[in-house]
Amino acid sequence: MSRGDRRGALARRTRRGRTLSGPPGGRGAFGRGGPLSSGGDEGGLPQRPTGAALPLLRRAAGFFRPYRGRLGAIGVAILASSILGLANPYLLKLLIDEAIPRRDIGLLAIYAGAMLVIPIINGAIGLGQSWLTAAVGQFVMRDLRNALFVHVQSMPLRFFAETRTGEIQSRLTNDVSGVQSVVSEAAANFASSIAVVLSTLVAMTLIDWRLTAVSLSVAPLFLFLTARASAARRKASAEVQTALADLTSIAEEHLSVGGALLAKSFGRSAEGATRFSRRSADLALLQLRQALTGRRVGVVVQVVFSGIPAIIYFVSGTLAVAGAPDAPTIGDIVAFTTLQSRLYFPLASLLGLQVEIGGSLALFERIFAYLDLVPEIVDAPNATRLTRAKVKGHIEFDAVAFRYPAPPNSDVRRRRDTFALNGISFTAEPGSLTALVGPSGSGKSTILNLIPRFWDTTAGSVRIDGRDVREITLASLGEVIGVVTQETHLLHASIRENLRYARPNATDRLLWEALEGASLAERVRELPGGLDTIVGERGYKLSGGERQRMAIARVLLKDPPILLLDEATSALDSVSERHVQQALERAAQGRTTIAVAHRLSTVSGADEILVLDHGTIVERGRHAALRRKGGLYAELAKAQFGVETER
């Protein structure tokens, strides 16, 4: 498949028109005007323009579809509860207009008894409805969190490089938690309130349509006030979540192990606390404004609702004094006002719910902004899956060029940089060690990142066993390639769990063999917990060299046919370096190894050394020949070994 075909396939897969690809400075997700170009404090995706409420609600409703059965049961319970709720006002009317005037104790007992039993039945129905509603709400929240987490994981490295970790965490925690109450209760409350309002209006109309018309005369005022309150709540919610994201980011930056070390090293702890306190104060004011938004509407509703019964009594009394033949009876008035009080509570709930939903729309916008992003690096439609047993490990770079995409808010026309890599061509045979050396920023790590498709080439191709890596599934690339990076990332877990990240079913014997290969077994045996020792946040309980050897042990346990080593021995002392180098030489037998190194001593025995400068290969050959050549490699060797260039 050609590159154009792949791009066409990706474009067809972009369902909502928002991708991470596109020319630098275009309108892709990371181009100019894209999600990361907000330029605000949030450091992540900007908010969408507010207004598209119905599409957002319809999309949110899609998460409820798997639970249609439970939702149906909730609907039946709501309908039954609303109908039963009409019984007591009607029984009260019968009690006043029939049982008491007739002095019929038996009929009075029946009506009064029914008025006691019906609430019990209604309460049981309500209890079941509440359980079902809570269950559906929690399941929907779980699905939303899972969908967001899985989707964010599929984003390319560029996404994580250009988005603050705290911002991503805020979307997963603060934003999802912010809509939890709405998701858990809003749908059921809305349906219940609608059912109660409609059934009550029917019952009130049957009693007296004139009094019903008087009761509904204030409805337009409520709708107007709540619409304004809902819009204000939506805006306030967006500002609160942005502030929460900022606060989460500040906490993550300053309270991680690295952040704490940085602050203590420079004596800047007080400044970090000041920064956090200022943003925390901003958040408090925003949350206060959010909490007060819509309260004035609530006060107006309460005052009007309290005054309407007096109007009903006045109209009823006027009809009776005027001698109207169809004037309401005392029982009618009592039943009507009882129904009226039953109407106002769900009506007020509906109005308040509109305000709450308006606030939640801002959170749904933020969540869906992430879910709408389409990764730029995806499997081709006809991608092939590699199997470890069949991979020989033949790697070929064919006229590869690569340029990093333009950063957000950049003007491409003013960019001076050209390509990070240009015209890179070489072949790494199975079982060989290919070393990449050169000054910092010459493109060594970029070459490694193109093999497992952390990035895609701008031009040319990278092939494994003759197949373009863009035609291989990403999952299988991850299975056949082992990577040790400059920055070792360990989980806050035991040594055993960190190693088994590479091979979940590995036995302790295999774990110890991997540790032996990385010259770490003796150190682990000295630890009180052995393999069960917790390494701490990002492995900070271990020394830098121990962390690096843990990473090497992990990749040795994985036993991939292709090894990519990016400064794999940079943090080792000379003794450990020698042991690990020997282990890596043994591990390289029968597999392809490409290593980036600044220490030339670690790659002096490489089958081929590629010397890079400004994104191009300027020299290639073996160690001795390159030193005799007197070029860039010879200069690097002289600087490191302190001897004159060999001629």
Task: Please give a structural write-up.
The protein has 23 helices and 10 strands. The chain has helices at 3-13, 53-61, 68-84, 87-102, 105-153, 157-162, 165-178, 180-207, 209-216, 219-255, 257-266, 269-292, 295-321, 330-371, 444-450, 474-480, 495-500, 508-517, 521-526, 544-558, 574-587, 623-629, 632-641; strands spanning 395-402, 421-428, 433-437, 459-464, 467-468, 481-484, 562-566, 592-596, 608-613, 616-621. The strands form 2 sheets. The chain has a 6-stranded mixed sheet, with helices on both faces. It has a 4-stranded antiparallel sheet with strand order 2-1-4-5, covered by helices on one side. The longest helix has 49 residues, at 105-153. Residues 1-51 and 412-416 have low confidence and may be disordered.
Q: Total domains, how many?
A: 3
Strand content: 5-15%
CATH topology of the largest domain: ABC transporter transmembrane region fold
CATH architecture of the largest domain: Up-down Bundle
Q: Mean of residue pLDDT?
A: 76
What proportion of the residues is helical, as a percent range?
Answer: 55-70%
Task: Characterize the overall form.
Answer: elongated
Main sheet strand line-up: 6-7-8-3-9-10
pLDDT below 50 for ≥5 consecutive residues: which ranges? 1-51, 412-416
How many helices? The count is 23
CA(first)-CA(last) distance: 48 Å
Structural class: alpha/beta
The largest β sheet comes out as: 6 strands, mixed
Radius of gyration, taken over Cα atoms and rounded to an integer in Å = 35 Å
Given this structure, which CATH class of the largest domain is correct?
Mainly Alpha
Query: Which homologous superfamily in CATH is the superfamily of the largest domain?
Result: ABC transporter type 1, transmembrane domain
